[in-house]
């Protein structure tokens, strides 16, 4: 069966253009023009991935509310914010709410499709049968690569798919700096620098909520990030 993508976009012309493009790639597309119709559909059945505009009809932050709803229903469903609004506050707000990516509408269709494909490649690991669990333990940190789960001091850390692979890239060689380009390559991502920064900040916050003294994800200015034991 084809993957199902939910597209929530209130501009009819944009919505129809992306329906055509996504279906041409073999995806099944369920499109919605407002938050209430999308919210009702999500409560009945989840898509495989959601692309959500932030401003929907007369709700300036309707997309944020939809993202919150989806994250309550699934921690791992890939969510992309797709919007004309391009500012740091919106980006950080969207990522903090659990979106896996934040794209502006001036990007190319090829770029959007590449990000969708990258998210699906990563989510596939959740359903792939594994003969044995591949685990990485660094003191209080336990990462189950096969199941894509993370715990800190025996407490589960609810990371998105994107956050998981960024963390995995950093901890494979503790103490070694990973540049932003290396994080993108190893995480199979196509993102810009500001998006990586937002993911790192949000990931740190999730650990700090469990352990106020957490300081193991270190920013090496001008170079990248590393896991400091």
Automatic annotation (TrEMBL):
| Residue ranges constituting the OmpR/PhoB-type domain according to the UniProt record | 133-229
InterPro entries attached here?
Answer: CheY-like_superfamily, OmpR/PhoB-type_DNA-bd, Response_regulator, Sig_transdc_resp-reg_C-effctor, Sig_transdc_resp-reg_receiver, WalR-like, WH-like_DNA-bd_sf
Top-level taxon of the source organism: Bacteria
4-aspartylphosphate-modified residues are 53
Q: Which residues bind DNA?
A: 133-229
Pfam families on file: Response_reg, Trans_reg_C
* CDD domains the UniProt entry points to: trans_reg_C
Q: Which keywords are on file for this protein?
A: DNA-binding, Phosphoprotein, Transcription, Transcription regulation, Two-component regulatory system
- Residue ranges of the Response regulatory domain? 4-120
PANTHER family assigned to the protein according to its UniProt record, in alphabetical order: DNA-BINDING DUAL MASTER TRANSCRIPTIONAL REGULATOR RPAA, REGULATOR OF RPOS
What name goes with this protein? Proteobacterial dedicated sortase system response regulator
Organism in which the protein naturally occurs = Alteromonas aquimaris
**What would be the name of the gene that encodes this protein?**
pdsR
């Amino acid at each position: 069966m084809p993957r199902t993508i939910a597209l929530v976009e209130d501009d009819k012309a944009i919505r129809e253009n992306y329906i055509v493009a996504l279906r041409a790639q073999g995806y099944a597309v369920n499109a919605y023009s407002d938050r209430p119709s999308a919210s009702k559909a999500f409560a009945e059945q989840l898509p495989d991935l959601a692309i959500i505009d932030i401003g929907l009809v007369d709700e300036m932050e309707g997309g944020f509310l939809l993202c919150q709803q989806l994250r309550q229903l699934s921690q791992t469903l890939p969510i992309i914010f797709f919007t004309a609004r391009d500012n740091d506050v919106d980006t950080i707000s969207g990522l903090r709410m659990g979106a896996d990516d934040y794209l502006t509408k001036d990007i190319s269709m090829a770029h959007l499709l590449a990000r969708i494909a990258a998210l699906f490649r990563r989510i596939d690991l959740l359903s792939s049968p594994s003969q044995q669990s591949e685990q990485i333990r660094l003191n209080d940190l336990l990462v189950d690569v096969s199941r894509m789960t993370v715990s800190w001091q025996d407490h589960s850390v609810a990371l998105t798919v994107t956050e998981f692979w960024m963390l995995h890239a950093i901890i494979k060689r503790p103490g070694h700096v990973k540049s932003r380009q290396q994080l993108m390559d190893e995480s199979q991502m196509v993102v810009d620098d500001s998006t990586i920064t937002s993911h790192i900040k949000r990931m740190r916050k999730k650990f700090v909520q469990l352990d106020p003294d957490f300081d193991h994800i270190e920013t090496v200015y001008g170079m990248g990030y590393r896991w400091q034991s």
